[in-house]
Amino acid sequence: MSGTIAHPLVRAEQERLRTAAADRSGWPGAVPPAGVAAPTSVEEVVSLMRWAHRTGTAVIARGAGTGLAGGASGIDGALVLDLSRMKRILEIDVEEQLARVEPGVITADLDAAASAHGLRYAPDPGSVGISTIGGNIATNAGGLRGAKYGVTRDHVLALDVVLADGTLVHVGRDTIKGVAGYDLVALVTGSEGTLGVVVGATLRLLPRPVRTATISATFVDIGAAAAAVSAITRSGARPAVLEIIDHATLAAIDALEGTVLSAQGGALLVAQTDGFGAEEEARVVVAAISSLAAAVEWSMDEADADRLLFARRRALPALEALGRPLIEDIAVPRGRLATAVQAIERIASEEQVRIFVFGHAGDGNLHPIIVTDTAAPDAPVPPAAQRAADRIFALALELGGTITAEHGVGRAKRLWAERELGAEVVALQRRIRAAFDPVGILNPGSTT
Ligand SMILES: Cc1cc2nc3c(=O)[nH]c(=O)nc-3n(C[C@H](O)[C@H](O)[C@H](O)COP(=O)(O)OP(=O)(O)OC[C@H]3O[C@@H](n4cnc5c(N)ncnc54)[C@H](O)[C@@H]3O)c2cc1C
Fold this sequence. Notes:
By secondary structure, this protein is of the alpha+beta class. It folds into four domains: about 10-85, Uridine Diphospho-n-acetylenolpyruvylglucosamine Reductase, domain 2 (2-Layer Sandwich), CATH 3.30.43.10; about 85-205, Uridine Diphospho-n-acetylenolpyruvylglucosamine Reductase, domain 3; about 210-315, 2-Layer Sandwich (Alpha-Beta Plaits); about 325-440, 2-Layer Sandwich (Alpha-Beta Plaits). The chain has 15 helices and 19 strands. Helix 7 packs across helix 10, helix 8 crosses helix 11 and helix 12 (about 335-350) packs antiparallel against helix 13 (about 385-400). Flavin-adenine dinucleotide binds near residues 23 and 192.
């Protein structure tokens, strides 16, 4: 049903349509939409949604397009609502420790603004410098600090949402507690643009930690590193950051950066503790893992923290330098991390594909990255890589985990999400979706 869209706010220049066609997932079905509107106010979003509802036009909300599930990818005939121009931080309320923002604010910009008041916006996806708050809310994004601070949903107090028919609703409240009515904030958070367009948010801010300790430990193999994760959990310490990196990824970082990480051990853990007791908590972490580690280093110094976190920060760029990365996102119970990584190594060898694993170990969240040689970003995923991905999803479910811990279902993981959720839950979700969007114009073909 391709064609042009006749609305004064909609543009259809080829370049604009091409940019709005895909997110960062490499999902192969993405096509340029019919038009793109970049509203600058809630009123403009309302007007566009009323028009789309009247004409039955599919609408795909879009933040920065950094999504990894094909959720913001264009479909034929659709209108893409690019919310990146609605990027004002409306208020930082220091007394109440909250922020009111428009959806297009870049996540790191909010954190920087909060920082000027001694506060922090805690969720920090790896894309913190490029993704938007609206996209983070729509995907319920996680991040490095998730081990202690949770995911985006834990920091959203209220939302302004434009529904499919153009009705503007305010859900939630600006108080820390409140239980009147169903928790629609939690429902919309993570709904991937299928229940409404987020046009405003009240977000919780936290005091910036007074102290941070960073710990880096190498292990003979991933099994020992995973055992250390369990030891940290048992110790009573609660690091803000607890990241794991496998040997293949360490070797890739060495190749890009000239480091010698892969010679020092078979796996790396990086942890951070923060707050008034950061140092004491770091000592507890070090004591818990020292009998399992080949080497442990820790520091309270900020410059050292950058050095100790360096490997984690360079993991994805190192893999991008090797080829085209297919970024997967499973979670398993933390006690099964080693089983998961060892099974992924077997899958890599049996399918003859390169798979690298790093992730947020504190959450049991692993990112197995299948790197293919295909240079063209829109070339089909090679069959062996797709088989490996499918086997990784099956493995996650077998181990009692999930096929997506933080990136979302989008268009890329629909079938696997249905398998994880089961027919009854999928049917219930579809009834909820129909209650919000009876005509079915919001992000059709995405999620379940
Ligand atoms: C290098 C890199 C690192 C990453 N690291 C992480 C990570 O650590 N953790 C993590 O969770 N993700 C990570 N991601 C994935 C991605 O950045 C997140 O999913 C992010 O939340 C998407 O934000 P966005 O603004 O780019 O949204 P988009 O990609 O534009 O959209 C994502 C989804 O949200 C919907 N949407 C966007 N804005 C709105 C809105 N205002 N209202 C309603 N629906 C909307 C879209 O329709 C789509 O379904 C990473 C991606 C990259 C490229």
